[in-house]
């Protein structure tokens, strides 16, 4: 047995699934998907083969000739689900499994029409990272087990299916009133990138390689906000080399989508909280685009190596920002990141395992230990590497890294080996061992200073001495300026101070979700009652965990608002995504 991924039952010594033919029939009435999956093996195998499942009902399994074969579904492990062991006849090249998903499938969110922009049609979407693909279909759910696939999805004919794959033909199903959509993914992907959405979804072309998908009611705003997608794609190709996934389309999701964005190949998913109306939050699109290289081409071997995905991607996101908007914008973005990192590190505590880059997450739920550390400590590590070798050598290194590991999944150790081979002595020079294997933030972390950053932070840090921004100046601040300023203010202010900020800058009515979230945290910590209604309404409008978690945490930690936290959660829990609901239950139990 060789379990190289602690979050999967996959044992590649038993056989490797190379491609899958997946047929899914979606039933909105009972919130299930009836599925059939054909597994094609890379080489003939025989005997036991283990797959990951979570809450799946396994109906039957057959060999290549259609003859039933034995299978055994083990008792569920709370974190990683149930091992499905199929018994393959000797020389098996393929086999199939029939299954039905649970209405509680952790990867799926089923929305009532009222939870969509249009209000008329239901909606369904998947979110498989990190280990939820196994709740949609049995699979070798480890990023080490890449596969290609064909997939058909049968849905009510008034709905549209989009998938992170190349669309094929659409045909009337044998079942009346149903339509079948076909897709193919010819490039091999790790299972966490399997993704689809079903709903009243329309399309608008934005560039030669990009189409925006969303509900018709959201199209105008979405197409405007992300109109620069092609410029971004060109900027990203300059850093990384050619884009290998043909299309870079994206889907603007319903508000309950629990993340800012998800880099599903060919079809990035984006939260509608990015629709600020001024393109100020498009960095998330740049981030998901950058994952097309760091993440989707070159993939972390397991969640322990997650920093390889996110650290490089945040670094690339900020390189794209530097290309498009200059160094000052980059320094503000890095400062916002650093604030988030310090907060995450403080909440884990000094010396915590989870503040290392390479971690040991065995036995723990990835959704529980998700944090900004792999993103922002990872970013600082990659930025330090760039600083150490210089931009020219860095660019050569990055392109070579991508080329060398494209379409494979690598461990941190493999990365270190590659770094030593390509740039001898550099790891030692920058203290890579400490960065990667020791907790906390090393003293040689790069600093991205700028005059503007100093001005904004200085102003906020002298707030208690009576310093106040000129109202006319601050009214012209950019959204990044506001985030920097609010994050540097004392966490708790007087009621008068809150009222001054809110009266002068209409913070309760902020349309930028980042600013609003920063403001509401201060307002709640300060027991500023005029913000309570806005906090409650915001928590009913969005499902993005980045906002839900800190706001519920602030409400819960303040004795004056603890009841409000429980009330708002009770009211909205049903409309939160299963992953978000789980996370918030932990916040409210604390
Ligand atoms: N791949 C992540 C989202 C993710 C990570 C989903 C782990 C499930 C498990 C995505 O690329 C991401 O990092 N999104 C960020 C945005 C980014 C700009 C930092 C987010 O959702 O906020
Ligand atoms: Zn990411």
Topology:
Layout: E1 17-27, E2 32-53, E3 57-63, E4 71-73, E5 82-100, E6 108-111, E7 123-126, E8 147-156, E9 160-163, E10 166-172, E11 178-189, E12 196-199, E13 202-207, E14 210-214, H1 219-225, H2 229-240, E15 249-252, E16 261-262, E17 267-270, H3 283-290, E18 298-300, H4 306-325, H5 327-348, H6 366-369, H7 373-389, H8 391-405, E19 408-410, H9 412-422, H10 426-430, H11 432-437, H12 451-461, H13 471-474, H14 479-488, H15 495-505, H16 513-525, H17 532-541, H18 545-557, H19 562-572, H20 578-589
Parallel strand pairs: 1-8, 14-15, 15-17, 18-19
Antiparallel strand pairs: 1-2, 2-5, 3-5, 4-5, 6-7, 7-12, 8-11, 9-12, 10-11, 13-14, 16-17
Helix pairs in contact: 2-3, 2-4, 3-4, 4-5, 4-7, 5-7, 5-14, 7-8, 12-14, 14-16, 16-18, 18-19, 18-20
Could you describe the 3D structure shown?
- By secondary structure, this protein is α+β, with helices and mostly antiparallel strands.
- It has 3 domains: 17-200, Immunoglobulin-like; 293-449, Neutral Protease Domain 2 (Neutral Protease, domain 2, Orthogonal Bundle); 457-589, Peptidase M1, leukotriene A4 hydrolase/aminopeptidase C-terminal domain (Serine Threonine Protein Phosphatase 5, Tetratricopeptide repeat), CATH 1.25.40.
- The chain is built from 20 helices and 19 strands.
- The strands form 4 sheets. Strands 1, 2, 3, 4, 5, 8, 10 and 11 form an 8-stranded mixed beta sheet that branches. A 5-stranded mixed beta sheet has the order 13-14-15-17-16, covered by helices on one side. A 4-stranded antiparallel beta sheet has the order 6-7-12-9, with no helix packed on it.
- A hairpin with a 4-residue loop joins strand 16 (261-262) and strand 17.
- Helix 7 packs across helix 8 and helix 16 (513-525) runs parallel beside helix 18.
- The longest helix is centred in the middle third of the chain and has 22 residues, at 327-348.
- It starts with 16 loop residues before the first strand and ends with a helix.
- The model has no long low-confidence stretch (mean pLDDT 97).
- It binds ligand BES and zinc ion (ZN).
- Ligand BES binds next to strand 16 and helix 3.
- Zinc ion is lined by residues 287, 291, 310, 313.
């Amino acid at each position: 047995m060789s379990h190289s991924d602690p979050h999967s039952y996959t044992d590649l010594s038993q056989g490797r699934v190379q491609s899958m033919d997946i047929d899914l029939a979606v039933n909105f009435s009972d919130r299930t998907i009836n599925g059939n999956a054909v597994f094609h093996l890379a080489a003939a195998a025989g005997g036991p083969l283990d797959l990951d499942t979570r809450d799946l009902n396994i109906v039957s399994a057959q060999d290549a000739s259609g003859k039933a074969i034995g299978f055994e579904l083990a008792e569920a492990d709370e974190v990683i689900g149930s091992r499905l062991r199929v018994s393959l006849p000797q020389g098996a090249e393929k086999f199939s499994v029939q299954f039905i998903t649970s209405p509680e499938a952790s990867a799926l969110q089923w929305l009532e029409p009222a939870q969509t922009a249009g209000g008329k049609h239901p909606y369904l979407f998947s979110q498989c990272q990190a280990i939820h693909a196994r709740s949609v279909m049995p699979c070798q759910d480890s990023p080490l087990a890449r596969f290609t696939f064909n997939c058909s999805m049968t849905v009510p004919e008034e709905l549209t299916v989009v998938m992170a794959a190349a669309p094929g033909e659409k045909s009337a199903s044998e079942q009346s009133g149903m339509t079948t959509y076909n897709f193919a993914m010819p490039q091999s992907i790790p299972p966490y990138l399997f993704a689809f959405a079903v709903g009243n979804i329309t399309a608008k072309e934005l560039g030669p390689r990009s189409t925006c998908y969303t509900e018709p009611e959201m199209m105008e705003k979405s197409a405007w906000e992300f109109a620069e997608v092609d410029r971004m794609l060109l900027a990203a190709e300059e850093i990384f080399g050619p884009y290998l996934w043909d299309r870079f389309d994206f889907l603007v999701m319903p508000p309950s989508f629990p993340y800012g964005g998800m880099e599903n190949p060919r079809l990035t998913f984006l939260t509608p909280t990015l629709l600020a109306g001024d393109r100020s939050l498009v960095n998330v699109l740049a981030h998901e685009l950058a994952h097309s290289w760091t993440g989707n081409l070159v993939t972390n071997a397991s969640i322990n190596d997650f920093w390889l995905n996110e650290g490089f991607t945040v670094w690339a996101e900020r390189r794209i920002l530097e290309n498009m908007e200059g160094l000052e914008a980059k320094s503000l973005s890095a400062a916002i990141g650093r604030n988030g990192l310090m907060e995450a590190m403080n909440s884990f505590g000094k010396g915590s395992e989870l503040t290392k880059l390479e971690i040991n997450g065995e036995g723990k739920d990835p959704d529980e230990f998700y944090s900004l550390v792999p993103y922002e400590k990872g970013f600082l590590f990659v930025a330090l590497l760039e600083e150490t070798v210089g931009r020219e050598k860095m660019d050569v290194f990055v392109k070579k890294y991508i080329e060398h590991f494209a379409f494979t999944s690598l461990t941190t150790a493999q990365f270190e080996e590659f770094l030593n081979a390509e740039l001898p002595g550099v790891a030692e020079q920058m203290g890579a061992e400490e960065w990667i294997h020791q907790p906390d933030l090393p003293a040689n972390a790069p600093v991205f200073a700028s005059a503007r950053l100093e001005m904004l932070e200085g102003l906020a840090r002298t707030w208690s001495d009576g310093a106040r921004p000129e109202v006319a100046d601050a009214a012209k601040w950019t959204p990044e300026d506001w985030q920097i300023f609010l994050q540097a203010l004392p966490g708790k202010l007087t009621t008068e101070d809150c009222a001054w900020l809110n009266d002068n800058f209409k913070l309760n009515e902020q349309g930028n979700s980042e600013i609003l979230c920063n403001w509401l945290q201060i307002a709640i910590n300060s027991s500023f009652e005029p913000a309570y209604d806005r906090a409650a309404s915001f928590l009913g409008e969005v499902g993005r965990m980045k906002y839900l978690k800190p706001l519920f945490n602030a409400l819960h930690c303040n004795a004056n608002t603890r009841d409000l936290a429980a009330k708002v959660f009770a009211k909205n829990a049903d409309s939160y995504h299963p992953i978000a609901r789980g996370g918030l239950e932990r916040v409210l139990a604390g």
